[in-house]
Write a structure and sequence with these properties.
Protein name: ACO12 thioesterase
Shape: globular
Low-confidence stretches: none
Number of domains: 1
Radius of gyration: 16 Å
GO molecular function: lipid binding
Helix content: 10-25%
InterPro entries: START-like_dom_sf (IPR023393), START_lipid-bd_dom (IPR002913), START_lipid_transfer (IPR051213)
Pfam family, one: START
CATH superfamily: START domain
Structural class: alpha+beta
Number of strands: 10
CATH class: Alpha Beta
Organism: Certhia familiaris
Strand content: 35-45%
């Protein structure tokens, strides 16, 4: 378990530091970047938020609040509180046209910065839990690496970066988006800002 949570944080930190991100869209307080490497597509959504970084961190690290701003989350319940910094959740998401509804079993690891210039981190990855086997009504999907880094911009604002490494399981949700025919990433980012502020 210690290894899983360490690798969860490390994978997100590694993804965030990768060179070669291309900016695809800029709005007033949202920027969307993509990164392609072989068959793996990652995206980063950068949001400017007018709340202190510790407030954004406490709201974003509690995934039971996620449905308030992310319409892709239908349900989200805690399966296991591994420690104060790690929780395992079961998430179900709304079905896309022509697709079965999906579910995920995810480990959410949160870390406060050790040094002032470091970000707050909330890392997410899929895990296997014997107690929650795949069920026939859902298509069990996997999150390789996702999460938030929250950088302080002073006492009353912060930059929230959301990262997601995309697998084929999540692709139907994003394909329409990255081609520009759907605004779901932007809309979700704007809802997230509204929720945090």
């Amino acid at each position: 378990q210690a290894y899983l949570s360490y690798s969860n944080i490390a994978a997100l930190t590694h993804l965030a530091r990768k060179p070669g991100w291309d900016i695809t869209k800029t709005l007033d307080n949202v920027k969307i970047w993509t990164h392609e490497e072989g068959a793996v597509l990652s995206f980063k959504v950068e949001m400017q938020v007018k709340v202190p970084s510790h407030v954004a961190f406490s709201l974003l690290s509690d995934f039971s609040l996620r449905q308030r701003w992310d319409r892709h989350f239908l349900t989200c319940k805690v399966l296991q509180a591994v420690s104060e910094e790690e929780k395992i959740y079961h998430v179900t998401s709304a079905p896309m046209t022509g697709h079965q509804p999906r579910d995920f079993v995810i480990l959410v690891s949160q870390r406060q910065p050790c040094r002032p210039q470091e970000p707050y981190t909330v890392a997410v990855r899929s895990v296997t839990l014997r107690a929650v086997p795949p069920s026939p009504e859902f298509c069990r999907s996997e999150i390789l690496c996702a999460g938030f880094q929250i950088h302080s911009n002073g006492s009353s604002s912060c930059t929230v970066c959301y990262f997601h490494q995309v697998t084929s399981g999540v692709m139907p949700y994003l394909a329409a988006n990255l081609t520009g025919s759907s605004k779901s990433i932007e809309d979700t980012a704007l809802e997230c800002i509204k929720f945090l502020e």
